[in-house]
Amino acid sequence: MDFIKELTWRGMIHSTMPGVEEQLAKEMTTAYLGIDPTADSLHIGHLVGVMMLKHFQRAGHRPVALVGGATGMIGDPSMKSQERKLIDEETLRHNQEAIKQQLAKFLDFDSDAPNAAVMVNNYDWMKDFSFLGFIRDIGKHITVNYMMAKDSVKKRLSNESREGMSFTEFSYQLLQGYDFLHLYRTLGCKVQLGGSDQWGNMTTGTEMIRRIAGAEDAYAITCPLITKADGGKFGKTESGNVWLSPKYTSPYKFYQFWLNVSDEDAEKYIKIFTSLPQEEIEDLVRQQKENPGDRPLQKRLAKEITTMVHSEADYNAAVEASSILFSKNANETLRHIDEDTLLAVFEGVPTFDVSRNDIEQGVKLVDLLTEKAPVFPSKAEMRKLAQGGGLSINKEKVADPFAPATPDMLLNGKYILVQKGKKNYFLLIARD
Hints:
This protein has 21 helices and 13 strands. It has helices at 3-9, 20-26, 47-58, 89-103, 123-126, 131-137, 144-148, 151-157, 167-170, 172-187, 199-213, 251-259, 263-272, 278-290, 296-309, 312-322, 330-336, 339-345, 356-360, 365-372, 379-387, and strands at residues 15-16, 30-35, 62-67, 118-121, 189-195, 219-223, 236-237, 240-241, 351-355, 391-393, 396-397, 415-420, 424-431. Strands 1-6-5-2-3-4 form a 6-stranded mixed sheet, with helices on both faces. Strands 9-13-12-10-11 form a 5-stranded mixed sheet.
């Protein structure tokens, strides 16, 4: 597989340095990508870079994931208008371990193959540097004029930012540049991968290798920053980032995010975020144009990425949960989906707290849904709707409003889903 050719048709190449294609054609090459460990989970904004590493390994080359334990303590000024808060070493180590577990779903770290992936932490080689040692041995090789010419620096020093730029952030490109030099020396790493906003920092690295190591065979490849067709920021929802960890974004919500992207975005994202071959993607695009209502692109995109990030079981559960509102077996599904998924499916519906004791005592539904929880304004209205087939408890129709509530109605031992008519849902929460 030709790495550059593969990423080009996928729309994942923004800039490349002259000579990099010849380097990749000549031999198995090592490339690294830096990942900021400021959280113990990656979010989907990281996925473009991770997929670059995945394709690099598929092409027979060796990927290196660099967790920025040292640089993460400072914060990259690129595209940022404010300085970032610093985090401590213990937090960084915890985050690094969590990130490696996520990356293992994309990269082969454990095989005996010569191109098995490697994870490194730049804190391991930066922690022993003294300030004097670094500015003497490294800083003297890069001029202030060179550093000032970078867009990330010029932007922060211009009128766009009143706060200016601290020396800490100004030194960031030297640290990232030294990472490349260190990996060039220790792992024979000749390529750095990253987003287009990193170009300035990456070229500082190739310049440092040229000036200090006297070598000309170091290169940079960047991918474009991903945007949505409507101009909105990719990966952001009303509730914030879409995370890879189920602790922060449930598999159901993760699946729903991809399922609900626009047709135009789906056509772009399926190339970037899956490893599906070109012919298969082109066939899906053709199907989408013939029958856009069936949304084959979104369905396949959501399947591939949910399975890759979570598991096939999580994907199947998300699909099943998505069908709750329309499925004939909805009651059975409600009985076995987990609490997080249940709450995600019915996020935003009105909720009422009720007494667990009332349910255990067999309170009549007509009393439960009028006096205990005001789902209905009156008992007469509830009776009328129930007799007309418009009342459901946990997606099962209830014709007798005087039937008792029972503990076995509680989903996850805690919830009762009430449906009033076709579209109005309410969630009762049993409290002790």
